[in-house]
Design brief:
Layout: H1 2-22, H2 30-36, H3 39-48, E1 55-66, E2 69-80, E3 84-89, E4 98-103, E5 106-111, E6 116-120, H4 123-129, H5 135-143, E7 155-160, E8 163-172, E9 181-188, E10 195-202, E11 207-219, E12 222-234, E13 237-250, E14 265-266
Length: about 270
């Protein structure tokens, strides 16, 4: 009996060894392999790791290239999540030259160089920068988030340059109230599930937007962009913006002041 038990134990050990040897080898990122079989799992992971806050403030410096001219830019960004984005541009000696506040349904803009202002909707901002973004798209770009308010159908998931890539052949804004559609590709860090690149095409307006998140840092336990490059192209115009973000703070009191001096002249669209 003892002899048979030993033979059985040996057979069992050899069988287990052969079975383990026949298992497919795992990559260095097992979670990425699992995600390749489930695009929606990856998308949910991205959304679970979105930047989350009530308020956000940061200083920025960088360069803007527009219509063939290159400019140094600096200033302050403040945000109230899903409610408002406030930007003050102060490139010289801390003297503000422009200020804009964007909400989901309005834009207010001050140009202190020529004493003008604008109040209206986001079409004004889109005309300036050559895009068709809405408030939530702009907020997502600044934070390195996906466009959560767009549809999730027609997704393909790939491995690309040691990153995950989600390709959307078509996305539509939710709720759908127009024919605005985009094609969209997202490059995702398979460890943090934070975006490293976002490419957007708007075929009906012949527009392209490319965003690279070149560096992220841990801010209050979240991975947030601190260095990004944005390129916008529409027909013959191209705008490029490189931003370095610093002094980022989350959930601290912020003021979104916006006062129009009486001598300023209103800009008409």
């Amino acid at each position: 009996m003892k002899h048979h038990s030993q033979k059985f134990l040996g057979f069992l050990l050899v069988t287990l060894a052969l079975l383990s040897g026949c298992r497919p080898q795992r990559g260095i990122i097992p979670a990425a392999e699992e995600a390749l079989r489930a695009p929606f799992v990856t998308l949910n992971a991205i959304h679970s790791n979105h930047a989350r806050f009530e308020s956000y403030t940061a200083r920025f410096t960088g360069t803007a290239t527009w219509q063939g001219s290159r400019h140094t830019v600096s200033g302050t960004i403040r945000m109230l999540h899903d409610r408002a984005i406030w930007i003050s541009v102060t490139p010289v000696m801390g003297i503000e030259i422009s200020r804009v506040i964007v909400t989901p349904d309005s834009v207010r803009f001050l140009n202190r160089l020529d004493a003008t202002y604008f109040t209206g909707d986001i079409r004004f901002l889109n005309q300036l920068i050559g895009s068709n973004m809405d408030f939530f798209m702009l907020q997502a770009v600044l934070l390195g988030n996906d466009f959560s308010h767009f549809s999730y159908q027609s997704i393909e998931l790939l491995n690309d340059r040691e990153m995950l890539r989600l390709d959307f052949s078509e996305r539509q804004r939710n709720p759908s109230d127009d024919d605005f559609r985009i094609t969209h590709s997202l490059w995702i860090d398979p460890i943090t599930y934070r975006l490293r690149q976002s490419n957007v095409s708007i075929p009906q307006f012949a527009q392209q937007m490319h965003v690279q998140y070149r560096a992220l840092e841990n801010i209050s336990g979240q991975q947030l962009p601190v260095n990004m490059h944005i390129s916008l192209s529409a027909e013959s115009s191209v705008m490029e913006l490189t931003l370095h973000l610093s002094r980022i703070q989350l959930n601290t009191p912020v003021e979104l002041t916006f006062t129009i001096p009486t001598r300023y002249r209103k800009i008409e669209m």
